C-alpha cells in the first residue's frame, strides 16, 4: 500500500452543500455519505472522477487550484494545456488569438501537451508488445487507473506503465528552455487541468512525492481569464509555437484518440459507468482478444472534462476540424526537434492494487461481517432511497457492519419500530436530524434544501 | 456463507449474474485477485453451460475462510459422454448458440483449468450435477 497520503482534488463546501442525494447516487465507487446534512467523501474510495461535481445542483463541490498570481514568482512562465482547451472556444476565437491571450496573461512559453505525442505513441506501442496481460489498458485517465486499483485489482497488471502527456510535455518544455540557457529554478511550469482527476494525479503522482509542475490551474478559471483579455483580431503570428502539434495529438484525449493507433485490435470506452460494465466483463474473460483498451472516465473523453466551459460535442467537433489542418505523426516525424532523454523518463511507477472494498483484512472476520450484511438486508426495504445517508440499502448494511450506521438510520425501519412502540417519536426525529441536519423537516422556505428546484 | 441462484435456460443476458455477485463477495473478503479471476471464470462458464445446454437449473455456492465450493444442478438433458465433453473444442452446441459467440467447446475444459477439484455426474434424460472447489 502507498505510504504517501492520498491526495484528492475534490472538496465539499459545507456552507453550500444542502444535503440532497444527487452526488451520493452518482458516485461510481459509493464513496459519498450524507452526515449532519452535508456530503462527506471517503478518501480511500474516491477516484476523483468528478461525477459528484457534475451532479451537484448547488455547486457545493470544488477543486483546489493555484491562481494566476503565482506567475509573478517566476522569471519564465510555461503554460501546459491539453488541446481540448482550444476546442471549447467559439469559432470566432482562432487558436492564434487564444495563444496571444495567454501571452497577455503573463505566460512566456506556451505548450499544448500533445505536441510530442509521437514519442508517447512509440513508447505505448513498445509496452503493449511487451505486456503479458492483454488487453493492455491505457493509463491516460487517472480516474480510471484509480478505479482499477480499487474495484478491479485483478486488472492492475494490464495497465500500461507509461506516464501521461503532461509529464512528457513538462520534460519537453524544460528541455527546450535549457537549450536557451534557462535553468529549472527560473521556470514556473503551470498545468491547466480539464478535470479533477488530472489535478489529483498531477499534484500527487503515484509513488512520487514531488510533482513535475509548479502550479495547477483550473481550466474553467483560465477560460474566463482568456475571455477577459482576448482580442477581436489576431495581431501576430504564433504558429511557430505549434509546429510540433499533430493531428494525432489534437484528438488524443477524445474518444478513440488513443485506440485509433491500434486499428482493429483495440476498443475505446468513455463514461465511467460504461467503463465499469466493460471492466466487469473483462474480469470474467468475456471480452474478445484485444491488444489495446482505451478507457476514459468522461463522456466524449476530455472534451467532457468537468472543468471545461464549452459543450462537449461542440468541442469534439471543433477539435476534429482543427486536427484536419495538421499533419499526422507519420508525416511530420516524431518531433521536429531533438529530444533525447525524454523517452527514458516516460516509464511510470508501478501501480499497486488498493483493496478498499474489503470488509476486513482478517478473512474470518470479513466472512462474519458478510453474513451480518446478509441478515441486515432482510430487514431493509430495498428501495434504495438514500434517506439514511448511504447510497442504497446494501451500502447501508455495509456501513452498519463497519460501525458507521445503525438500524434506525433507515426511515422505513424506524417507522416499523414506531408502530411497534420500540422507539419514541422524539428519538426518531433526532435520528433523522443526525443525517440531514437540524430543522431540516420544518415548513420553512429558507431552510437548507428548502428551495431545491431539482433539474 | 451460502449463496443460491436460479439459472433459466436460453437467456444469455442473465448468464453472469451468479458470477458477478460471487465476485463482489470475494472482493469483500479480500481474496487474491488472481484467485478471484479463476473462480469467476469457472462459474461464468458453468452458468453459460446451463443456459446454453440444459432446461434450466440452480447454482449454489458455499464460501468459508478456506475456499469456495460450487454446485450446479440441472434437470436435463444430461451429458452422453463426459470424457468427450471434457475435450477442448468438442461441442454439441446448436448453430444458434454458436452464432451468439458461445459453444466453442471450451466450457468444461476451462472450468477444469480454473478449479482445484472438479466432479461431473450426469445421467441422460435426468440431468447433470457439476461440482467444483477452489481454495483461496
TrEMBL record, chain A:
Keyword Iron-sulfur among UniProt keywords: yes
Assigned keywords, A-Z: 4Fe-4S, Iron, Iron-sulfur, Metal-binding
SUPFAM superfamilies given in the database record: 4Fe-4S ferredoxins, Fe-only hydrogenase
Pfam families cross-referenced by the UniProt entry: Fe_hyd_lg_C (PF02906), Fer4_7 (PF12838), FeS (PF04060)
Occurrences of domain 4Fe-4S (ranges): 368-427
Start and end residues of each 4Fe-4S ferredoxin-type domain: 8-36, 37-66
UniProt entry tagged with the keyword Repeat: no
GO molecular function: 4 iron, 4 sulfur cluster binding; metal ion binding
Tree of life domain: Bacteria
Name used for this protein in its record: 4Fe-4S binding protein
Organism (species): Draconibacterium aestuarii
From TrEMBL, chain B:
Any one GO MF annotation of this record: ATP binding
SUPFAM superfamilies named in the record: ATPase domain of HSP90 chaperone/DNA topoisomerase II/histidine kinase
Superkingdom classification of source: Bacteria
Keywords associated with the record: ATP-binding, Nucleotide-binding
Domain Histidine kinase/HSP90-like ATPase: residue ranges: 17-133
Pfam families: HATPase_c_2
InterPro entries, alphabetized: HATPase_C_sf, HATPase_dom
Name the record gives this protein: ATP-binding protein
Amino acid at each position: 500500500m502507498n505510504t504517501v497520503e492520498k491526495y484528492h482534488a475534490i472538496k465539499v463546501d459545507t456552507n453550500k452543500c444542502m444535503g440532497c442525494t444527487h452526488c451520493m447516487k452518482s458516485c461510481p465507487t459509493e464513496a459519498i455519505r450524507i452526515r449532519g446534512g452535508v456530503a462527506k467523501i471517503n478518501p480511500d474510495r474516491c477516484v476523483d472522477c468528478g461525477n459528484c461535481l457534475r451532479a451537484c445542483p448547488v455547486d457545493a463541490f470544488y477543486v483546489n487550484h493555484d491562481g494566476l498570481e503565482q506567475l509573478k514568482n517566476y522569471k519564465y512562465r510555461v503554460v501546459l494545456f491539453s488541446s481540448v482547451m482550444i476546442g471549447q472556444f467559439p469559432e470566432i476565437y482562432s487558436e492564434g488569438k487564444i495563444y496571444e491571450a495567454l501571452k497577455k496573461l503573463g505566460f512566456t512559453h506556451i505548450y499544448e501537451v500533445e505536441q510530442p505525442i509521437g514519442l508517447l505513441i512509440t513508447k505505448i506501442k513498445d509496452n503493449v508488445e511487451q505486456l503479458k496481460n492483454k488487453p493492455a489498458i491505457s493509463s491516460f485517465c487517472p480516474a480510471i487507473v484509480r478505479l482499477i486499483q480499487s474495484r478491479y485489482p485483478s486488472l492492475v497488471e494490464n495497465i500500461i506503465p507509461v506516464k501521461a502527456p503532461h509529464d512528457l510535455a513538462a520534460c519537453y518544455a524544460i528541455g527546450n528552455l535549457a537549450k536557451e540557457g534557462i535553468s529549472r529554478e527560473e521556470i514556473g511550469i503551470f498545468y491547466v487541468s480539464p478535470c479533477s482527476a488530472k489535478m489529483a494525479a498531477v499534484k500527487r503522482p503515484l509513488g512520487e512525492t514531488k510533482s513535475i509542475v509548479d502550479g495547477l490551474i483550473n481550466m474553467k478559471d483560465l477560460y474566463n481569464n482568456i475571455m477577459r483579455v482576448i482580442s477581436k483580431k489576431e495581431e501576430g503570428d504564433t504558429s511557430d509555437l505549434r509546429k510540433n502539434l499533430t493531428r494525432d495529438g489534437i484528438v488524443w484525449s477524445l474518444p478513440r484518440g488513443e485506440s485509433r493507433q491500434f486499428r482493429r485490435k483495440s476498443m475505446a470506452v468513455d463514461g465511467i459507468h460504461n467503463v465499469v460494465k466493460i471492466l466487469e466483463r473483462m474480469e470474467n474473460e468475456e471480452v474478445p482478444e484485444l491488444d489495446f483498451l482505451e478507457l476514459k472516465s468522461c463522456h466524449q473523453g476530455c472534451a467532457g472534462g468537468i472543468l471545461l466551459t464549452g459543450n462537449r460535442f461542440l468541442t469534439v467537433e471543433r477539435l476534429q476540424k482543427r486536427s484536419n489542418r495538421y499533419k499526422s505523426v507519420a508525416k511530420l516525424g516524431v518531433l521536429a526537434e531533438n529530444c533525447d532523454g525524454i523517452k527514458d523518463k516516460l516509464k511510470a511507477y508501478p501501480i499497486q492494487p488498493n483493496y478498499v472494498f474489503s470488509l476486513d483484512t482478517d478473512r474470518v472476520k470479513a466472512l462474519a461481517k458478510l453474513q451480518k450484511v446478509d441478515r441486515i438486508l432482510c430487514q431493509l426495504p430495498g428501495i434504495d432511497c438514500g434517506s439514511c445517508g448511504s447510497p442504497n440499502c446494501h451500502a447501508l448494511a455495509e456501513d452498519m457492519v463497519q460501525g458507521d450506521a445503525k438500524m434506525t438510520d433507515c426511515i422505513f425501519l424506524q417507522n416499523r419500530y414506531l408502530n411497534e412502540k420500540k422507539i419514541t417519536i422524539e428519538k426518531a426525529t433526532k435520528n433523522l436530524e443526525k443525517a440531514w441536519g437540524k430543522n431540516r423537516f420544518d415548513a420553512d422556505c429558507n431552510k437548507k434544501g428548502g428551495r431545491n428546484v431539482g433539474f | 456463507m451460502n449463496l443460491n441462484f436460479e439459472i433459466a435456460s436460453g437467456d444469455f443476458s442473465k448468464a453472469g449474474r451468479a458470477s458477478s455477485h460471487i465476485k463482489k463477495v470475494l472482493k469483500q473478503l479480500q481474496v487474491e485477485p488472481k484467485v478471484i479471476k479463476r473462480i469467476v471464470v469457472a462459474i461464468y462458464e458453468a452458468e453459460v453451460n446451463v443456459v446454453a445446454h440444459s432446461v434450466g437449473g440452480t447454482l449454489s455456492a458455499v464460501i468459508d475462510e478456506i475456499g469456495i465450493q460450487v454446485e450446479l444442478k440441472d434437470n436435463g438433458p444430461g451429458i452422453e459422454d463426459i470424457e468427450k465433453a471434457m475435450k477442448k473444442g468438442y461441442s454439441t452446441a446448436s448453430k444458434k448458440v454458436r452464432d451468439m459467440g458461445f459453444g466453442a467447446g471450451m466450457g468444461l475444459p476451462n472450468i477444469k483449468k480454473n478449479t482445484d477439484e472438479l466432479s461431473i455426474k450426469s445421467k441422460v434424460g435426468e440431468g447433470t450435477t457439476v461440482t467444483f472447489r477452489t481454495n483461496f
